[in-house]
Amino acid sequence: MTVTPAARTAARASRPNGQWAVDGRAPLNANEEMKAADNGLNVRDRIENVYAAGGFDSITDEDLHGRFRWWGLYTQRKPGIDGGRTATLEPHELEDRYFMLRVRIDGGALTTEQLRTIGAISTEFGRGTADITDRQNIQLHWIRVEDVPEIWRRLEAVGLSTTEACGDVPRVILGSPVAGIAADEILDPTWAIHEIARRYLGDLELSNLPRKFKTAVTGHPSQDVVHQINDVAFVGIVHPELGPGFDLWVAGALSVAPRLGERLGAFVREEQVPDVWAAVTALFRDYGYRRLRNKARLKFLLADWGTAKFRQILQDEFLGYELPDGPPPPRPTRSGDHVGVHAQKDGRFYIGAAPYVGRVSGPDLTAVADLADAAGSHRVRLTPYQKLLVLDVPADQVAAVVTGLRAHGLEAEPSPFRQSTIACTGIEFCKLAIVETKVPAMRAIDSLEARLGDLSQLTPISLHINGCPNSCARIQTADIGLKGQLVMDDDGAQVPGYQVHLGGGLASADRDEAGLGRTVRGLKVTAEGTAEYVERVVRRYVADRETTAAGPETFAAWAHRADEEALQ
């Protein structure tokens, strides 16, 4: 019997998607079976009482490659395995006997005591490694399972944790790095962030989601938490009748199928944020697609439902009341990376500094904590742009803090490319990566500072470098995004390189709406040729850009209208 295409389509459509509220809870793949058999949060007891004593070889496969993530632990990549073998080797062949440990830092807020504790842990247990991520976390490497219980003890003694830093759970909550101190903020969302974490972090009812779930909350007019690429986001606005509150966004995410988040058109009062957050999370838990992991993010559900249905089900089934309509957020007022010296509303200053693409070290973090304390500051913040802020600096200490940060690789007066370049972990530690990222990015920054030094008025052009297609470094929303892959050089040899994305960006002071970058067929660059390519395309932009009453054309606008030849 011949099966027609229409019949095959109908058969596929009738297959369950693994939506708990529709199809029941029977697991439809190995990952769902693992989660159903034992909640990921339960692995902590085994880590502390079995694996720390028995060592790496005592860890079961399901815990090692599954549940460990619920406590911020991934095995790191074994050194010496080239990117060409990433897709051909099994996890146990790629992985080392050491772990990446992700410290969860909701809102990016740290005391100097907490920063000093992380620095000491890095130095003692992680070979001095430390990366500030674009999710406001700090990642350490070279961690042994034997040391994890002691690391947890030290972190928790100062109010930190690694709980649900990875896994199919609510990940770290992004928050405005200048919450509570900025003179121009609409409202301070710190209470809401703390309340979500207090109520729901480690909650067994929300610790088995279809996939990871990302949150962002800001009350600052710069919209400094990349809200368009989070599963749920609350953006500060002023309602014409109800006053300050938040605009609700859902279902943003990048990776290999990027989709920008969308407004539900709903206004959320500050005191409602934890309840609305829990309702969106529970909706994802119950209606998210679990059968195929590559279709399990909230963005796929919204694509099928649309915003009207999503809002109605959210209100009817999970909130129990209607949210009022609200206005969209206005255009951001300034850069959300907060680099430089800025006045606080109390007369003191905060200083935002750029490391090289998030790369710092344990000794650096300890030194920054000491520097801040010496200046009379006891608070630092991390940003979603891999930057670090020192808060509460008296006017007479600003120069000393700027100089002290520079001595430890943190620049408060960076070049445009030092300021606007971010990079993921890359092949150095990541099992998914195909190419290196951090070192090529650092070399590119140094080279571009020299190559483009004559363009003194150049507005920062964002350069994001990723080691694989998963877009941890947000390549589709950068002016210049580089996606790691193997490419052919001029001699026909296969070498590390990148596919190029151009003209992406989030809403900003010079961009009304977020948009994804364009690709040009066949446009790839080698890792060694990165700086040369960036110089070439930037100089072409400077030569070709148009000038209007509003000022020079942005790189993104130019990149989307330029001929393909100009982008080569």
Automatic annotation (TrEMBL):
It comes from the Bacteria. It catalyses: hydrogen sulfide + 6 oxidized [2Fe-2S]-[ferredoxin] + 3 H2O = sulfite + 6 reduced [2Fe-2S]-[ferredoxin] + 7 H(+). Residues 1-16 have a biased composition (Low complexity). Residues 167-317, 447-565 form the Nitrite/sulphite reductase 4Fe-4S domain. One of its GO terms (molecular function) is sulfite reductase (ferredoxin) activity. Pfam families: NIR_SIR, NIR_SIR_ferr. The keyword Calcium does not apply. Residues 1-23 are annotated as: Disordered. InterPro entries: NIR_SIR_4Fe-4S, NiRdtase/SiRdtase_haem-b_fer, Nit/Sulf_reduc_fer-like_dom_sf, NO2/SO3_Rdtase_4Fe4S_dom, NO2/SO3_Rdtase_4Fe4S_sf, NO2/SO3_Rdtase_FeS/sirohaem_BS. Its cofactor is [4Fe-4S] cluster. The keyword Iron applies. Its EC number is 1.8.7.1. Residues 93-158, 342-407 form the Nitrite/Sulfite reductase ferredoxin-like domain. Keywords: 4Fe-4S, Heme, Iron, Iron-sulfur, Metal-binding, Oxidoreductase, Thioether bond. PANTHER family: FERREDOXIN--NITRITE REDUCTASE, CHLOROPLASTIC. Catalyzes the reduction of sulfite to sulfide, a step in the biosynthesis of sulfur-containing amino acids and cofactors. Belongs to the nitrite and sulfite reductase 4Fe-4S domain family. This is assimilatory sulfite reductase (ferredoxin). It comes from Pengzhenrongella sicca.
